Amino acid sequence: MNATPTHKPKIFRPEDVDYERPKRGLDEDDLRKQPTIYRDDMLAGKTILITGGGSGMGKATALLAARLGAQVAICGRDEEKLQTTVKLVKEEVGSDVLSVGTNIRDADAVEALIGKVHDHFGGLDTLVNNAGGQFPQDAIDFSRKGWLAVIDTNLNGTWWMMQEAAKRWREDGKPGNIVNIVANVERGMPQAAHTCAARAGVIYLSKTLATEWAQWNIRVNCIGPGVIETEGFRMYPEEALARFHKANPMKQRGNAWDVAEMIAYLASPAARFINGDLIVMDGGQAQWGVVWPAGMPDYFSEDGAA
Ligand SMILES: CCCCCCC/C=C/C(=O)SCCNC(=O)CCNC(=O)[C@H](O)C(C)(C)COP(=O)(O)OP(=O)(O)OC[C@H]1O[C@@H](n2cnc3c(N)ncnc32)[C@H](O)[C@@H]1OP(=O)(O)O
Ligand SMILES: NC(=O)C1=CN([C@@H]2O[C@H](COP(=O)(O)OP(=O)(O)OC[C@H]3O[C@@H](n4cnc5c(N)ncnc54)[C@H](OP(=O)(O)O)[C@@H]3O)[C@@H](O)[C@H]2O)C=CC1
Is 28 a member of any domain? Predict the structure, then answer.
């Protein structure tokens, strides 16, 4: 192959766009209208903590869990975003969500968060590690700070959460349940190598802990979403977003409610025998199609690849 590569490495920073971007994903009005297949009291008496609960999948999960009767706690870095979830759940369900501003990269803050949830609700049944993210870029151009930011959030932050939750479950002699939101890493993630490395780490960490921690009745599973349309899409340029859904054979995007319903299932007694698994929700992308979130290099497009 002698083609001269013409792909220009691009940096896309959402704060730099000078045009109005369309709404992405389910907004609050949409969330309020989502039906559920589950019984109203399916999670009654259960406490669920959702990281990144102020937007996207985290927000949808907080609302669904509250509708199903759970006591809900959320965390994130942006207090304003967290309060939108608190308000939504209060208006829709009438229950109070415990919101604790926390950067999951800060292990001390994570320890304090787990303590607050236990103090407030008297325990924790399910931890959902949903907080995370990345930016699209060719790996060769990653800055050191950028690499570290993504690894620290998605791998280290998730680990701090898992370890602190598990310590309390072991100490209290209570069962535990962890659901980690990862990504579709099976065939790698071009232009998202940092997150691919971190999420692959979380998947195998989870499989390992599912065995180590089974002695304390702590289960650990992962959900691997494909392209799920949420406000998190702001991290990507519009021209890339226009192609995202073409990376799966269904040629569709999932939505935050799809993932919330899977999380609710894993939080329910129906999932009591599922442990160490990765449930992929990607419309078949793992078998076919690749997302190029920063633009496909000519090297690939000239072969007519997806
Ligand atoms: C997965 C991609 C391919 C498939 C797409 C499938 C569909 C979408 C999947 C999704 O996950 S959507 C959900 C996305 N949501 C998010 O990603 C939100 C959270 N993300 C973030 O907050 C950031 O991306 C972050 C870097 C993970 C956060 O770290 P931090 O708060 O520390 O960020 P910064 O201080 O802003 O940046 C630190 C460092 O990182 C580098 N960097 C940041 N943004 C970019 C960018 N757009 N392009 C290149 N490099 C970037 C940079 O070195 C920053 O340091 P400074 O240069 O700013 O000093
Ligand atoms: N949408 C998609 O197609 C896919 C998404 N995913 C992953 O699913 C998860 C949910 O994404 P989605 O809902 O789409 O996107 P969002 O950007 O809406 O959600 C990400 C959430 O993570 C929180 N967060 C990020 N960093 C930290 C941190 N250091 N400490 C605490 N909270 C943090 C953010 O809150 P705050 O800003 O308040 O800190 C935000 O609420 C993410 O891990 C995402 O990467 C995986 C595959 C595909």
Answer: no
Ligand 1 atom with minimal separation from the 56 CA: 13
What's the pLDDT tens digit per position in 1-59?
Answer: 444 555 555 789 999 888 889 999 999 999 999 999 999 999 999 999 999 999 999 99
List the one residue out of 252, 306, 259, 303 whose CA is nearest residue 280: 259
Q: Which ligand ends up closest to the CA of 236?
A: 1
Flag whether 160 is in a domain. yes
Q: Is 148 in the pocket of ligand 1 (CB under 6 A)?
A: no
Residue 3 inside a domain? The answer is no
DSSP 8-state symbol, 156: I
* Cα→Cα distances 273→39, 127, 222, 268, Å: 20, 17, 14, 11
Q: Which of 102, 134, 248 to mutate to test the pocket of ligand 1 (most atoms within 8 A of CB)?
A: 134
Dig out the tokens for 289 from the structure.
């199609």
* Domains: count for the chain: 1
Q: Is the pTM of this model over 0.90?
A: yes
Q: What is the ipTM of this complex?
A: 0.98
What is the extent of the structural domain holding 228?
38-301
223-245 in b/e form (b: 16+ CB < 10 A) is bbbbbbbbbbbebbbeebbebbb
Give the whole-angstrom CA distance, residue 273 versus residue 33.
31
Q: Closest-lying ligand to the alpha carbon of 142?
A: 1
